[in-house]
Write a structure and sequence with these properties.
Blueprint (H helix, E strand, L loop, with lengths): L24 E7 L2 E6 H18 L5 E5 L4 H12 L3 E4 L10 E4 L11 E4 L18 E2 L21 E5 L4 E3 H9 L8 E5 L6 H14 L3 E5 L5 H11 L1 E6 L1
Parallel strand pairs: 1-11, 3-4, 3-5, 4-8, 5-6, 6-7, 10-11, 10-12
Antiparallel strand pairs: 1-2, 8-9
Helix pairs in contact: 1-2, 3-4
Length: about 250
C-alpha cells in the first residue's frame, strides 16, 4: 500500500489514497449491523468528488465544518477537504472557527452562517439524503456524485492548517502527518481503530486511520455502538495486528 502522491511537498498527501491505488482494502467499517469495505481506489474517488464540490462551491482552501458521526463518510469529507487545500473543522459548530461550508448528518447540526450547506445520509450505501432537503441545501451523495472521479490536489505547504476539532485539537498538515507516522503498523497488516463519541471523536478516528495507512496497513474502524462481541468478530475476521485510539 502506497500513498497517492508521495512526491508532493505536502507531507499529508503522501499518506492518502488516490484513484490510482490498488483494489486492496484501505478501510473496513464495522457498525452494529453492517460491514463496509473500501479500497484505496474507492476512497480516492469519493475524496475527489468531495473536493470537486468544495472547489466549485467555495473559495480556494475552504474552511469546511464536518458534523458527521465517526465513520467512513466523515473520513471522505476530510480527505476531500485536504485535496481542495482546505481545513477540516470537525465536531459541533459552536466550538469551532467560522467556516465557508458546513457538512452535517441533520439540519440541526449545520452551521447556520455558512455560505454552502450539505446534508449527508446516515446509511452507508444510501444514494441520496434520506429526508427533505431544506432550500438551497446540497445533497451530500447525489450532488457529490456529479463530480469527477479525479481531482488534482491543490498545492499546500506543511504549515497550513489541516484539522481542527471541537475538543481543542489543532493540527497543521505537517504535524498531522507526523502524528500519523509516530505509530506505524507492519506492512500488510490490519489496525483496529475503535471509534468513540463526544468532542474530538471524529478527529481521533481520522488520526488513527492515517496512522494505519502511514504504516501500510488496512484501517478497521469500529463504531462505538458496536457491542464487545462485534468488535471481537472484527479482530478475528480482519486479522488485526495492532490497535489505535479512535
Amino acid at each position: 500500500m502506497t500513498g497517492a502522491r508521495p512526491s508532493s511537498p505536502d507531507p499529508l498527501l503522501g499518506i492518502l489514497p488516490g484513484p490510482g491505488d490498488s483494489d486492496r482494502p484501505w478501510l473496513v467499517w464495522y457498525s452494529p449491523d453492517e460491514r463496509v469495505e473500501l479500497t484505496g481506489h474507492v476512497l480516492g474517488m469519493w475524496a475527489a468528488k468531495c473536493a470537486g464540490l468544495l472547489s466549485a462551491e467555495a473559495d480556494v482552501g475552504p474552511q469546511v465544518h464536518i458534523a458527521l458521526p465517526v465513520g467512513w463518510r466523515a473520513l471522505t469529507w476530510c480527505l476531500g477537504t485536504w485535496l481542495a487545500g482546505g481545513t477540516a473543522l470537525v465536531g459541533e459548530a459552536h466550538a469551532l472557527p467560522a467556516a465557508q461550508v458546513s457538512v452535517a448528518s441533520a439540519p440541526s447540526l449545520l452551521s447556520p452562517d455558512t455560505e454552502v450547506q450539505v446534508l449527508v445520509p446516515g446509511a452507508s450505501l444510501a444514494i441520496r439524503y434520506d429526508g427533505e432537503l431544506p432550500p438551497l441545501v446540497l445533497d451530500g451523495v447525489a450532488d457529490v456524485m456529479t463530480y469527477a472521479d479525479h481531482f488534482a490536489a491543490l498545492p499546500v505547504g506543511p504549515d497550513a492548517p489541516a484539522l481542527v476539532a471541537d475538543d481543542g485539537t489543532r493540527l497543521g498538515r505537517g504535524s498531522l502527518a507526523a502524528a500519523a507516522q509516530q505509530a506505524t503498523a507492519a506492512a500488510g497488516g490490519a489496525v483496529l481503530v475503535h471509534g468513540d463519541t463526544g468532542p474530538g471523536a471524529v478527529a481521533r478516528s481520522v488520526v488513527g486511520i492515517l496512522s494505519a495507512w502511514a504504516g501500510g496497513a488496512t484501517a478497521v474502524l469500529v463504531d462505538a455502538a458496536c457491542p464487545a462481541d462485534r468488535t471481537a468478530l472484527a479482530v478475528r475476521q480482519e486479522g488485526i495486528t495492532a490497535r489505535r485510539p479512535g
